[in-house]
Amino acid sequence: MNCRPEDMLVYAVTDRAWLKGESLKDQVEKALKGGVTFVQLREKNLDRRLFLEEAATIKELCDSFHVPFVINDDVEIALASGADGVHVGQKDMDVKEARRRLGPGKIIGVSCKTVEQAKAAEAGGADYLGVGAMYPTDTKSDTSQVTVETLKAICRAVDIPVVAIGGIRADRIQPLKGTGADGVAVVSAIFGQPDIEAAARRLKETAEMYLGRHRRRKTVLTIAGSDSSGGAGIQADLKTMLANGVYGMSAITALTAQNTTGVSGIFPVTPEFLAMQIDSVFSDIRPDAVKIGMVSSGELIRVIAERLSYYKAENIVVDPVMISTSGSRLLDEDAVGALKELLLPMAAVATPNIPEAEVLSGICIRSSEDMVRAAEIISREYGCAVLCKGGHRLNDANDLLYRDGGFCWFMGRRIDNPNTHGTGCTLSSAIASGLARGYSLEQAVERAKEYLSGALEAMLDLGSGSGPMDHGFQIP
Ligand SMILES: Cc1ncc(COP(=O)(O)OP(=O)(O)O)c(N)n1
Ligand SMILES: Cc1ncsc1CCOP(=O)(O)O
Ligand SMILES: [Mg+2]
């Protein structure tokens, strides 16, 4: 899935018929300020050079609001402009052909009027569906109406997000309640209004009230140690999860007495009590993702692996906490063996830092090329994706993601802040939050790095040692 149901809530479709002397960029910016969650550039008669220029401009604008942006009908413009994807109708291009041309990472939306079309689009690789016209509309002449019952049947028949389109106005959203539609796609009730920003805002408030079949808050479980100083471990994980829009839960592996100057005591829980915590969580609120942090013994690791495999846990992020900041080994040989044998093979991604990647790969890392080699060894050996974090000795904040035989770099901003306590816990929890919310691994990593940078840039300065970051930097 390349887009999330919540991205569909208020989906703006542009129309230069409403420009009235303004630029499209200014109008789209107003819509974004009003809170639209998705933008489609729909150009039926524009010269291709101007179409491409406009697409590149609107893409940059949407990026600055972190809002997905697709092109109507035209895969080539979508590719050339760097747009996030394309929206195609039944007569435009077969979804499989669009997927072949765009590759796996781009968004493809497909217009549907029937359950059959919807199922075929989903099977062909569509990421979302546009269903309509729901009401009479003057914006598109070559369309026919779809009933609310059909919209409901389509939503029931597919697992991908669905957006209702055609004649949508704020007062026409309530009748769509209970259909399962994730949002509304709108042209004239946004761009044809005298105050675009206010119109978008009103649509969003109304859609939030009545729509969204997948709007249950996503949940993440952290299995890690408690940090009494609140900067790392369970405490950092839960703060990170809250800030990244998911509901956080915990299973504590050990209590630690620590502050910014060091750890003065560790009190591990028993294997039975760890299992009890995991069971309590899974039997009631199934997590959409699991983050595993510090686990000090092979015995506890075996309990985690056994329980997670029993519950068929998904989206497991393993932060293989093995080496302390001062460089000393935190895990004995038995625990390292259990981590390698049992936890890594279950992981969607493991996030070692350089010393940890050295232990896991068995090679010494002195260069970026060594990072790639180590990640490749770990990924091949244990069958998981690997995010090898630069930071420690190399590469500033540039991290390497290795998965399925290929790799990409995520360039980080170098932030001059000595207070880095809990950065590993925070990054892995933010990645787990992104995966729980349905982002791809690449998107989850990118968003997590952005969050981490924000938390570091806030320059919280607490304690006399290496202090914590400001996990709540977005909160006023
Ligand atoms: C979100 C969304 N849904 C449906 C459409 C209509 O697409 P199509 O049927 O291809 O008609 P045109 O928009 O190309 O005239 C859409 N554009 N967006
Ligand atoms: C593009 C499209 N596809 C089905 S109806 C429609 C037009 C929607 O425009 P409006 O929101 O102004 O009714
Ligand atoms: Mg079309």
Automatic annotation (TrEMBL):
Q: In which pathway does it act?
A: Cofactor biosynthesis; thiamine diphosphate biosynthesis; 4-amino-2-methyl-5-diphosphomethylpyrimidine from 5-amino-1-(5-phospho-D-ribosyl)imidazole: step 3/3; Cofactor biosynthesis; thiamine diphosphate biosynthesis; thiamine phosphate from 4-amino-2-methyl-5-diphosphomethylpyrimidine and 4-methyl-5-(2-phosphoethyl)-thiazole: step 1/1; Cofactor biosynthesis; thiamine diphosphate biosynthesis; 4-amino-2-methyl-5-diphosphomethylpyrimidine from 5-amino-1-(5-phospho-D-ribosyl)imidazole: step 2/3
Kindly list the GO molecular function terms attached to this UniProt entry.
hydroxymethylpyrimidine kinase activity; phosphomethylpyrimidine kinase activity
**Residues annotated as domain Thiamine phosphate synthase/TenI:** 10-190
Query: What residue stretches are annotated with the Pyridoxamine kinase/Phosphomethylpyrimidine kinase domain?
Result: 227-470
Q: Which UniProt keywords apply?
A: ATP-binding, Kinase, Magnesium, Metal-binding, Multifunctional enzyme, Nucleotide-binding, Thiamine biosynthesis, Transferase
| Binding of 4-amino-2-methyl-5-(diphosphooxymethyl)pyrimidine, residues | Q40, L41, R42, E43, K44, N72, S111, K140
Reactions catalysed, as given in the entry: 2-(2-carboxy-4-methylthiazol-5-yl)ethyl phosphate + 4-amino-2-methyl-5-(diphosphooxymethyl)pyrimidine + 2 H(+) = thiamine phosphate + CO2 + diphosphate; 4-amino-2-methyl-5-(phosphooxymethyl)pyrimidine + ATP = 4-amino-2-methyl-5-(diphosphooxymethyl)pyrimidine + ADP; 4-amino-5-hydroxymethyl-2-methylpyrimidine + ATP = 4-amino-2-methyl-5-(phosphooxymethyl)pyrimidine + ADP + H(+); 4-methyl-5-(2-phosphooxyethyl)-thiazole + 4-amino-2-methyl-5-(diphosphooxymethyl)pyrimidine + H(+) = thiamine phosphate + diphosphate
Q: Which cofactor does it need?
A: Mg(2+)
Cofactor: record remark: Binds 1 Mg(2+) ion per subunit.
Q: What domain of life does the native source organism fall in?
A: Bacteria
State the function annotated in the UniProt record: Condenses 4-methyl-5-(beta-hydroxyethyl)thiazole monophosphate (THZ-P) and 2-methyl-4-amino-5-hydroxymethyl pyrimidine pyrophosphate (HMP-PP) to form thiamine monophosphate (TMP).
Question: Which family, according to the similarity comment?
Answer: Belongs to the thiamine-phosphate synthase family.
User: What protein name is recorded for this chain?
Assistant: Thiamine-phosphate synthase
User: What species is this protein from?
Assistant: Enterocloster hominis (ex Liu et al. 2021)
The organism's taxonomic lineage, starting at the top: Bacteria, Bacillati, Bacillota, Clostridia, Lachnospirales
Q: Quick one: which gene encodes this? A: thiD
